[in-house]
Design brief:
Elements: H1 23-35, E1 48-52, E2 55-58, E3 63-66, H2 69-72, H3 81-93, H4 105-117, E4 124-129, H5 132-147, E5 151-155, H6 164-169, E6 187-190, H7 202-221, E7 226-231, H8 247-257, E8 261-265, E9 289-292, E10 303-308, H9 309-312, H10 328-343, H11 346-367, E11 371-377, E12 380-385, H12 395-407, E13 410-411, E14 413-415, E15 421-424, H13 432-447
Parallel strand pairs: 3-13, 5-6, 5-7, 7-8, 8-9
Antiparallel strand pairs: 1-2, 2-3, 4-10, 9-10, 11-12, 12-15, 14-15
Helix pairs in contact: 3-10, 4-10, 7-8, 11-13, 12-13
The structure holds pyridoxal-5'-phosphate.
Pyridoxal-5'-phosphate binds near residues 131, 133, 232 and 293.
Length: about 450
């Protein structure tokens, strides 16, 4: 079965012709190990030669089901035809001028689109950078500049990147922070409404967590010292934690009351992934600044900071930017992505994926008491594995399930502060039969423990 939105000539099938990884991938892995430091990890050591729709094809000719999308990047599919076409044309016209030196239209067009499509109908501005971390760093720069304040508030289980500031904003020590200190100053962490693990129970989670977070800000920092609150509307690396309903709006309201810039880090949740164009829309939260990256350009490196015009316009000429920010190839790719989301109805498609996955996973949770929680929205879905009958995390079982999935040709990713979350991020163009087949593999992998 071919997929109209995927790479059309790439058969949409799981096909294993060697063990995983096969001999060619093993040879390449040996080269990687002598050329690349181990700090750059590998989830599944198959070396990819082609990808599209819902599959990754490796050097040995295996075709694997992709439940990762390169970590929520290829939402529109890998080598998506619209992206390929626009990038091919652009690469022949010009590859770089530096937008800050001599500009070009596609950069402006991407900014116009993001100003139009992000939550809220207030006047907005956008500028482009290269990575999610860079977007978050820049949001903090803008918030500090505009408010004249320094403190930045982040949450338990948060992930915001690997640069000095963003690893400081990130919650988890291993592997992100361990021995990389000292960290950036004026960063404060407060509780997140994590329903599955809230001591007071799911029903009290939103109100209690918001009260604790706000109390910590007032008592430990002073709201008048806070430049920005930075939050993922659904935690990504932290384990796809959907904050209990009511938590995000309450935090946003507190920010509004206190002149604090509310920054939504939608680097992982953006671009139709969660069944809304942006995850904040689910509860009608309108951020002052929204950071986007990952899904924005179908795999080309691009990120954006979009926010209230009155905040972004405050920064002096030359205070923002970077050599490659808004590279013309990446901008063309982003325009193709936005076109695909609209024309291929990928928001609906993400909801459809959730409608297939969630009932299957809830059914597995009935049968396997190792599954403690099933959660997520759209095509951003996760299960949390625990010791049966408890909430005690089981990272060993989680790693084993992922390993068994990989051996059967299903790329599944793990996540979570406790390393006990299996997260599923299929490309939004994955055909239904591959989604079902992937879930069958997962079911068997858990059942075989
Ligand atoms: C991936 C991610 C980042 C960092 O993006 P990079 O492009 O890897 O720098 C920041 N925030 C969130 C929520 C992410 O998922």
């Amino acid at each position: 079965m071919s997929n109209p939105q995927g790479s059309p000539s790439l058969p949409q099938e799981r096909r294993l012709v060697t063990e995983i990884p096969g001999p060619k991938s093993k040879e390449l892995l040996a080269r990687k190990q002598s050329a690349v430091p181990p700090g750059i990890g590998t989830t599944l050591p198959v070396f990819v030669t082609r990808a599209g729709g819902g599959v990754l094809v490796d050097a040995d000719g295996n075709s694997l089901i992709d439940f990762g999308s390169g970590i929520a990047v290829t939402n529109v599919g890998n080598a998506a035809p619209r992206v390929v076409e626009r990038v091919q044309k652009q690469v022949a016209d010009f590859t770089h001028t530096c937008f800050m030196v001599t500009p070009y239209e596609s950069y402006v067009a991407v900014c116009e689109q993001l100003n139009r499509l992000t939550p809220g109908d207030h006047e907005k501005r956008t500028f482009l950078v290269n990575t999610g971390a860079e977007a978050v760093e820049n949001a903090v720069k803008v918030a500090r500049h505009a408010t004249g304040r320094q403190a930045v508030v982040v949450f338990d289980h948060g992930y915001h990147g690997r640069t000095l500031l963003t690893m400081t904003l990130t919650a988890k020590n291993m592997p992100y922070k361990h021995r990389f200190g000292p960290f950036a100053p004026e960063v404060y962490r407060v509780p997140l409404a994590y329903p599955f693990r809230w001591p007071g129970g799911r029903e009290n989670c939103a109100a209690e967590a918001a009260a604790q977070a706000i109390d910590a800000i007032n008592k430990q920092i002073g709201a008048e010292n806070v430049a920005a609150v930075v939050i993922e509307p659904i935690s990504g690396e932290g384990g796809f934690i959907e904050p209990a309903k009511g938590f995000l709006p309450r935090i946003a309201e507190f920010c509004r009351e206190n002149g604090i810039v509310f920054v939504a880090d939608e680097v992982q949740t953006g671009f139709a992934r969660t069944g809304d164009l942006f995850a904040c829309e689910d509860e009608g939260v309108v951020p002052d600044i929204i950071c986007t990256a990952k899904g924005i350009a179908g795999g080309l490196p691009l990120a954006a900071v979009t926010g209230r015009a009155d905040l972004l316009d405050k920064v002096h000429v030359g205070g923002l930017g970077g050599t490659y920010g808004g590279n013309p190839l990446a901008c063309e790719a982003a325009l193709a992505v936005l076109e695909s989301i609209e024309e291929d109805r990928l928001v609906e498609r993400a909801r459809h994926i959730g409608d297939i996955m969630l009932p299957r996973l809830h059914d597995m949770a009935e049968r396997y008491d190792i599954i403690g929680d099933v959660r997520g929205r759209g095509a951003m879905i996760a299960i949390e594995l625990v010791r049966p009958g408890t909430t005690e995390p089981d990272p060993a079982a989680t790693a084993e399930v992922a390993k068994r999935c990989h051996a059967e040709g299903l790329l599944a990713l793990t996540a979570g502060t406790y390393g006990n979350v299996l997260r599923f991020l299929p490309p939004l163009v994955i055909p239904d039969h591959l989604l079902e087949e992937g879930l069958n593999i997962l079911d068997k992998a858990i059942g075989s423990l």
